[in-house]
Design goal:
The chain is of the alpha/beta class. The chain has a domain at 26-174 and 184-212 and 264-270: Rossmann fold (3-Layer(aba) Sandwich). Helix content is 40%, strand content 22%. The chain is built from twelve helices and seven strands. It has helices at 26-36, 40-44, 48-62, 79-87, 101-104, 120-126, 145-155, 178-187, 191-201, 218-226, 231-234, 238-251; strands at residues 70-73, 94-98, 113-117, 130-136, 156-167, 204-217, 257-270. It has a seven-stranded mixed beta sheet with strand order 3-2-1-4-5-7-6. α5 links the parallel β2 and β3. The termini are far apart. Residues 11-23 have low confidence and may be disordered.
Length: 273
Amino acid sequence: MSYQSGRTPKGPEPPRRSSTSGGVDPATIKKHYEDLADSYDEFLYWSPDFVGKMADKIVDMLDLQPDDTLVDIGGGTGMYSLALLERVELTNPVTVVDPFPEMLARIPEDAPIVPVAAEAVEFSAGAPGCSKVLMKEAIHHVGNKSELIGNLYDRLDPGGRVLLVHVDPHQVQYPLFDAALDNARNSFADPDELIRILDSAGFEPRRDELAYHHEVPTGHYHRMVERRYMSILTSLPEEQLTAGLDEMRARDQGTDTLRFTETFSYVLGTKTR
């Protein structure tokens, strides 16, 4: 199915205080997503096969059913909500929560999605009840993870599930330069920490992973890095990024395709009591 692009997010402009962490300051994160909104899907939609495999595993681990009420926190342009809707015909619209209206505005107007401009912790404190929650590559931006997870536990239906999908910092293999790789390893959420937080909140936690083998044209990947396609690149000074790109171009000279593995942790919490 296809949807028409572009919409106006519902809800008030999000507060400017931040729940971000991971060594990237709130103003930098804000600028990153505002600047990248118009090309986010071009750079992060690696391929239909990639998004499909990620979405298939999300459906499986969330045990997503047609009558579920799904909330996608940090859902941005709705990329994964749309992929999930292709797999499960939900009777209730998906709520996509993101602090950046520029991202939410990219969600197709006719998609069964309600966009909400809000930060994760603030939204979770007063969110309506739901049965399933997805956070795809967003949990590392949340400073008070325990507060967020505790709020979600309170608002989930009995038997409800929250799924935290994120890059495993212990298995980072991007074809980047050293400073960017170090930043990535220090910024992404530790899956063991997330397990502990879920357990402390009352969830029954479980962890799985998905490793995807990318093949990306070299020039395209260099352009992605130049546009700072990941937030961990945004915090680097311009001169460091320029030097890093020079290092990559010298290293990759004569290479048409970059091949690397991206490993995602799928950390699930089930409300069993």
